[in-house]
Amino acid sequence: MIEFSHVSKVYRGVRALDDVSFTVEPGSVTGFLGPNGAGKSTALRVLVGLSRPTSGSATVYGLPYDTLGNPGTRVGVLLDAGALHPGRSGREVLALGATTLGLPGSRVGEVLDLVGLTGQEARRPVGGYSLGMRQRLGIGHALLRRPGTLVLDEPANGLDPQGIRWLRELLRHLADSGCAVLLSSHLIHEVEQVADHVVMIGRGRVLAQGPVAGLGGGRSLEETFLALTSDTDRSAA
Ligand SMILES: Nc1ncnc2c1ncn2[C@@H]1O[C@H](COP(=O)(O)OP(=O)(O)OP(=O)(O)O)[C@@H](O)[C@H]1O
């Protein structure tokens, strides 16, 4: 379970998050939707302890992420697939993660199969990967320990249609197995197809939240999103 409770974050005068509160329950996918600059990445960075909230708290399993004690064993995180070490091969990235988490080397092959990277691709340096391949590797890294909570920032970026379908089925399967999945995205249709709940954010504020079905009271998720964010997008900033 993930809980944001009245989280605000101010960067030198920029209010990136403003009193953000929502929860992500086990067994569900929560889509975190917002236009560019809405505060999605900031919220996820606060959640995993990379950024301190100015006020409020964000917790996983009832505790701040950095006090969990070996959080990698319970929480899978992918914030920036571009941050994977470019000089290491995909297999090395996963092997290092497996060793850090105390997992057997056999888990690396399982994860490569899970994310659809071939043995040949896994031997290549990550610096030469396409964005979609990096996303697959980053998702695999987040799933090494079969975490009960998964936090993904824009994981569909760079994935081809097959990859997007694969991701959707993977997240559905994980949630159906009890995982709490928080999925940040600006792809409304993607969120609509996979998420059980949606939290919409604009200019750092939660604009709406609730079950995907029924959030807009008869309007499509896209219409709801556009109506709510029309005066919060960057062009209006
Ligand atoms: N380190 C920082 N210093 C100053 N301002 C920041 C910093 N990080 C983010 N911001 C500002 O906070 C606001 C929210 O940014 P954030 O990256 O969280 O948005 P986002 O919803 O993830 O956007 P995108 O979809 O474009 O990735 C923006 O106005 C951004 O400029």
TrEMBL record:
Q: Which SUPFAM superfamilies match?
A: P-loop containing nucleoside triphosphate hydrolases (SSF52540)
The protein's UniProt keywords, in alphabetical order, are: ATP-binding, Nucleotide-binding, Transport
* InterPro entries membership: AAA+_ATPase, ABC_transporter-like_ATP-bd, P-loop_NTPase
Give GO MF terms, alphabetically.
ATP binding; ATP hydrolysis activity
Database matches in Pfam families: ABC_tran
Can you give the residue ranges of the ABC transporter domain?
2-228
Check the record and name the PROSITE patterns matching this protein. Answer: ABC_TRANSPORTER_2
Family from the record? Belongs to the ABC transporter superfamily.
Q: What is this protein called?
A: ABC-2 type transport system ATP-binding protein
* Species of origin: Streptosporangium saharense
Q: What is the lineage of its organism?
A: Bacteria, Bacillati, Actinomycetota, Actinomycetes, Streptosporangiales
